[in-house]
Write a structure and sequence with these properties.
alpha+beta, 7-stranded mixed sheet, 4-stranded antiparallel sheet, 16 strands, 25% strand
Length: 298
């Protein structure tokens, strides 16, 4: 096995990984060690990587089957599993979210690789939603344990509602070209660690059984625990870096603080399982078929 070095970057989330060349095939022991580190730190940060799109996909496949790039947004030309996250494409995700939670089985993990980085700004914030759950006072934790939320893509974290120009309107129409609604437990049990985490974020738009206004107040209250500074890692991108995060128990946010300068990352996601709540009940789809994006393992 490769001599891995795992160095924590904050107390609650994030570790830098060195001592491994992820551009090469990895042996089972190394993959197992990386998985263990991901379970502990939720986010792994690799510097000085020598990867192209093919190499990024090969690395991600060590953790499971890949999804296609996105249920509705086009992939990189000729590379159906790679999503361009490009400032010129209007997809600066400056809203807290977990990737693609509007489908029945969102990705278990996401990889982001830096292609073009601005000279300043453009950081990615990643939050530990298990730490957020542990921070909840007991009465709030008891409430959250009972709640389910509807997640939908009929709201685009990348296109503000007030945007009215034709290009933005076209991007929004594409993002919502297939409408999805899925009910997930607000508290998700991680299938590998058994940890409980708040499974909400930007696509969670309504609490089952509550009005829209009531839902917003409850979701905002819980979300405030996710985004506490002590639960975050703030990653300042440099060229040739890759971040791997556990999409089942984190949220992330792309900071729009680089004056519209070029910024491009490529995203590859690993197919995930159907979320399960603390009582063992699985999420359920309400609207939309995502089988072209990811299969559901049974």
């Amino acid at each position: 096995m490769t001599e891995l070095k795992i160095t924590k970057v904050t107390a609650r989330i994030g570790a830098e990984v060195s001592g491994v060349d992820i551009s090469r095939p990895l042996d089972e022991a190394t993959v197992a060690a990386l998985r263990d580190a991901l379970n502990v730190h939720k986010t792994l940060l690799f510097d000085g990587v020598n990867l192209d799109d093919e190499g990024q996909q090969a690395f991600a496949r060590h953790f499971g089957d890949l999804t296609t790039a996105h249920p509705t947004v086009p992939a990189v030309d000729g590379v159906p599993n790679v999503l361009p996250v490009d400032s010129e494409g209007g997809r600066a995700a400056n809203n807290w979210h977990t990737d693609v939670t509007f489908v029945l089985n969102p990705p278990q993990a996401s990889t982001l690789r830096s292609i073009t980085v601005p000279p300043y700004g453009g950081e990615t914030l990643i939050a530990n939603s298990a730490a957020a759950y542990r921070d909840l006072p007991e009465p709030l934790r008891g409430l959250a344990d009972t709640l389910w939320a509807e997640h939908t893509n009929d709201y685009d974290y990348a296109v503000p509602e007030e945007a009215v120009d034709e290009a933005e309107a076209a991007r929004r129409a594409r993002f919502t070209s297939i409408k999805y609604r899925t009910a997930h437990p607000v508290v998700r049990v991680h299938p590998l660690t058994g940890e409980r985490g708040l499974f909400i974020g930007g696509f969670a738009q309504r609490i089952v059984g509550l009005s829209a206004g009531e839902s917003r107040k409850v979701l905002d209250l819980l979300q405030a625990y996710v985004t506490r500074p002590e639960n975050l890692v703030r990653w300042r991108w440099s060229p040739g870096q890759l971040v791997l995060f556990d999409n089942r128990i984190t949220q992330h946010y792309a900071v729009d603080n680089y004056d519209g300068l070029p910024r491009r990352l490529h995203r590859v996601t690993v197919a995930g399982d159907v979320p399960v709540g603390i009582e063992g009940k699985e999420s359920y789809a309400i609207e939309g078929d995502a089988s072209h994006y990811t299969t559901v393992a049974r």
